[in-house]
């Protein structure tokens, strides 16, 4: 089954079930949000999120608010080259925007949630923002997903403890972790401190069990590395990178 949706490229990976806050100020993405606001409230306001391949984004960006004196490239595919599909990873995630709030200056505050994995088949840059033809991907459980999820949760708790210790901070254990294998696999993938290519590999795993097996190896390796470090930079475990759209 294929769908056509607005496309929002990011320098990070979105997983099903994870919350995505966005500060939208580029005109191409503002146009996207204006279009999504035309969707009746009782219907989902969906767009697709794909991670940008390393080295492919050439549009200028910097921390903080955009420089009003800068003259960046214009158009929906600005910064992504003549064939934008080559700039993006092939598997992304559909986002359902629960909140789209327009500010007085025309920028938007958006809160969305990842829902379904999709494979990118083509990108259209003919309109005011990118759109894409997408193939929805089913989540297959794979073999022994339940047992693997239990092992991953145990390893993840050890990872959290080591991470908190290396940061010389206390670990809050009040939150209950899920037990559904696919949910466990996505939560752990999003929460671990991994680079974008590794997170992308986890997103496009062929099934839940394969993702969990990969995560178990990563958790053991990362926990071992953290054990030998005196400290780590301060950042919240489950906080994703800020989107500079």
UniProtKB/TrEMBL annotation:
InterPro entries in alphabetical order: Lon_prtase_N (IPR003111), Lon_prtase_N_sf (IPR046336), PUA-like_sf (IPR015947)
Pfam family, one: LON_substr_bdg
Segments crossing the lipid bilayer: none
PROSITE patterns: LON_N
Lon N-terminal domain boundaries: 5-223
UniProt-listed Gene3D superfamilies: 1.20.58.1480, LON domain-like (2.30.130.40)
Name of the protein this chain belongs to: LON peptidase substrate-binding domain-containing protein
Origin species: Streptomyces coerulescens
